[in-house]
Amino acid sequence: MANLAPLNQLGDFIREQREQAKVSLRQLSELADVSNPYLSQIERGLRKPSAEILQQIAKGLRISAETLYVKAGLMEDRAGDRSVENAIFADPVLSERQKQVLVDIYQSFCKENDKEETP
What we know:
The protein has two domains: 5-71, lambda repressor-like DNA-binding domains (434 Repressor (Amino-terminal Domain)), CATH 1.10.260.40; 79-117. By secondary structure, the chain is mainly alpha-helical. It has helices spanning 5-20, 25-32, 36-43, 51-61, 65-71, 79-90, 96-117. The chain is globular, with a radius of gyration of 15 Å. The N and C termini lie far apart (44 Å).
């Protein structure tokens, strides 16, 4: 049987984020447009979600999709990127549109800097 530890860790992380956001499983299911039973299976570590599903869950939780990609092992950890994005998404003063614009600008600066560092 496959090692389920990473799936359990991902599911635990999603559950923790959902609980911190004070969102029920049913509410997140609606926000992320993912079925309630499937989302429950993800949280319990029984299913491995695709990158697209992770992106939908991240949007529903208002966190960076990269955070979930790293937790799922789909992407390498780039520590600085996630903390800035998560801070922006957690800001209670900004509108959702303002948050997304700030994250887009931040990501474009990061990409520009990566190009400058690459010979």
